[in-house]
Amino acid sequence: xxxxxxxxxxxxxxxxxxxxxxxxxxxxxxxxxxxxxxxxxxxxxxxxxxxxxxxxxxxxxxxxxxxxxxxxxxxxxxxxxxxxxxxxxxxxxxxxxxxxxxxxxxxxxxxxxxxxxxxxxxxxxxxxxxxxxxxxxxxxxxxxxxxxxxxxxxxxxxxxxxxxxxxxxxxxxxxxxxxxxxxxxxxxxxxxxxxxxxxxxxxxxxxxxxxxxxxxxxxxxxxxxx
Length: 226
Fold this sequence. Notes:
- It contains seven helices and ten strands.
- The chain is an alpha/beta fold.
- The strands form two sheets. The protein has a six-stranded mixed beta sheet with strand order 6-7-8-3-9-10. A four-stranded antiparallel beta sheet has the order 2-1-4-5, with helices on one face.
- A hairpin with a 2-residue loop joins strand 4 and strand 5.
């Protein structure tokens, strides 16, 4: 399903001395369809950078990312954009909902962009799955933080992506709300058998995944015991 081969990503500290910091160093990863993995690591270790590369939103210095037998590095700009929007769902810590649209309209939007049929029953079912069917006509500023994150999860899954990327999806929520949101999250991805990469600092969440990796010194290390 996913292969990451010898991925390298560096950043230049400043223009004066031309020194570069290595964020990812010959990183490798292989995932099977439907597998859920967690990536943990200290702040600044490159977890979000890795997700940005796998999503196709950023490009590595070298190496290759293959999703559904498509090498992201070999796709043209337009085709990469189409591939990403149709195959990859993303859930951020910040919700990035469209604030002038209702919950229903936020779910309809990615379908419209992909020129897929906007079926009312499909959207309402997606809202029901995350407990928000009664909030269909409310805008994000009328929803709680937990409701906004559940809506963001539904939006990421409405396109039935091959791959779901989640970057600290409960990080901005209080503990009780975070537990509720993540219960919905795992219920949905397990039910849909969605291949998922979860970046988290919460080891209890990590333990709910099929495998756990620690990002350390630019490489992924399998974690056997937590």
